[in-house]
């Protein structure tokens, strides 16, 4: 296969031309300041992803199951808020109890917002001088390794979920104090079939019953 080297600027100025040449079985090597950084090549159908086989007819011949499988998933896993997530990685009060709980769990869940909160917690410890950057890097490395191993399951925050939570918040008694982030955790746990939520936050613990949840604090 013929190979042609072009710069990023050349690709930008005449993208269509280079794509057509790559489609014609010519290998295009893209360089940045003379260093190869990427390639353009023709599409190989054999390397494409295969779709899920349509087994609907087979499935319909199976016994009808009335219970949604998400119920069993939530029963096998525990929902942690960001404070509990942090205690799985930081040497702070109560960490030993939360880690012991996590080790007994069949899976740990939180909404995607909880992941952001966790990183915000790390940054605050850095800003206040509790941890150095090398400590943060070590924590993040362990955290991302656990993610890769499937320890954490992040529940999506969708527009539909947010609308449902808004409706629930609108129905709360006027004397209930609930922050937006807490409402997101409670709503996400409830909408995904959880019956319990682990948190040390007093406001979230008090509001959990309004979302059909039992708030649990092991600290």
Descriptors:
2 domains, alpha/beta, Rossmann fold, three-stranded parallel beta sheet, extended, 11 helices, 15% strand, 219 residues
Summarize the structure in words.
This protein has eleven helices and eight strands. It has helices spanning 8-13, 15-23, 56-60, 69-76, 82-87, 95-104, 112-127, 133-148, 159-170, 180-191, 202-207, and strands at 3-7, 27-32, 35-40, 78-79, 108-111, 152-155, 196-198, 214-216. The strands form three sheets. Strands 1-2-3 form a three-stranded mixed beta sheet. It has a three-stranded parallel beta sheet with strand order 4-5-6. Helix 9 crosses helix 10 (180-191). The radius of gyration is 25 Å and the shape is extended. The protein starts with a strand and ends with a strand.
Helix content: 40-55%
Distance between the termini: 65 Å
The description of the largest β-sheet is:
3 strands, mixed
CATH architecture of the largest domain: 3-Layer(aba) Sandwich
The largest beta-sheet arranges its strands as: 1-2-3
Would you identify the regions where 5 or more consecutive residues have pLDDT less than 50? Answer: 70-74
How many strand units?
A: 8
CATH topology-level name of the largest domain: Rossmann fold
Pairing-aware structural class of the strands and helices?
Answer: alpha/beta
Shape: extended
| CATH homologous superfamily identity of the largest domain | 5'-nuclease
Note the beta-strand portion. 15-25%
Report the order of strands and helices: EHHEEHHEHHEHHEHHEHE
> What is the CATH top level name of the largest domain?
Alpha Beta
Question: Which whole number gives the mean pLDDT?
Answer: 85
The number of distinct structural domains comes to 2
